[in-house]
């Protein structure tokens, strides 16, 4: 299980490809029904988290049910790019070679090389971000929560149903990244679902704190 695999997974990470072809891992959901029952969905209209799990349940606004939870520091901007901009962006992204990554994803990374154990940064091989993404970074200034934001790393991540692509629950190292991470979802609708963190408080404060510019490329829902 810990040997390199052609699908890009390694260690305990798995995708549908290695689970089916090599009999590794478990394709069952890592989210229990109890956790789903205690989850919240963030509504970008009223900017509150409401009890629920189902995708697009926030579209019932303003007819929410249950008691909401305030979740400051989160901002969802609908239609941040136009359909024409999305098409041009996807075309440009696909002209760049993809690398296989863990859990069924493909990725493209831009940024300096970071050694988190030694807390050192190597910038000599970093020449900048793709020109076709400049308009996105420039547009960040229109979002109040991103005032003064500076990109340290930019990555494109592709998620497909066929590979069971996903990102596992994790804690980011915030030594260099800071406290903000903007994500632009393309090709498919996205829902921000929240579950209560049960680990140590010190770790909880570091969850998803990296200020990376991430493009999440999913499958078009017909």
UniProtKB/TrEMBL annotation:
It comes from the Eukaryota. Its cofactor is Fe(2+). One of its GO terms (molecular function) is demethylase activity. GO terms for biological process: demethylation. This is Alpha-ketoglutarate-dependent dioxygenase alkB homolog 4. It comes from Petrolisthes manimaculis.
């Amino acid at each position: 299980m810990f040997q390199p695999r052609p699908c890009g997974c390694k260690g305990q990470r798995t995708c549908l490809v290695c689970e089916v072809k090599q009999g590794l891992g478990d394709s069952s959901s890592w989210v229990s029904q109890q956790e789903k029952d205690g989850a919240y969905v963030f509504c970008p209209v009223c900017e509150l988290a409401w009890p629920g799990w189902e995708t697009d349940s926030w579209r019932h606004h303003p007819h929410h049910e249950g008691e909401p939870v305030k979740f400051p520091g989160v901002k969802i901007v609908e239609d941040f790019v136009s359909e024409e901009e999305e098409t041009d962006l996807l075309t440009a992204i696909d002209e760049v070679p993809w690398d296989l990554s863990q859990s069924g994803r493909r990725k493209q990374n831009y940024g300096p090389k970071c050694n988190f154990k030694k807390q050192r940064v190597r910038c000599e091989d970093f020449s900048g971000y793709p020109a076709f993404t400049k308009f996105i970074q420039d547009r960040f200034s229109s979002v109040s929560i991103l005032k003064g934001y500076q990109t340290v790393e930019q990555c494109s991540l592709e998620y497909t149903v066929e590979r069971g692509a996903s990102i596992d629950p994790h804690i980011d190292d915030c030594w260099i990244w800071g406290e903000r991470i903007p994500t632009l979802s393309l090709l498919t609708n996205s829902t921000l679902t929240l579950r209560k963190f049960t680990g140590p408080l010190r770790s909880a404060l570091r969850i998803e704190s990296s200020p990376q510019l991430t493009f999440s490329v999913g499958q078009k829902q017909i």
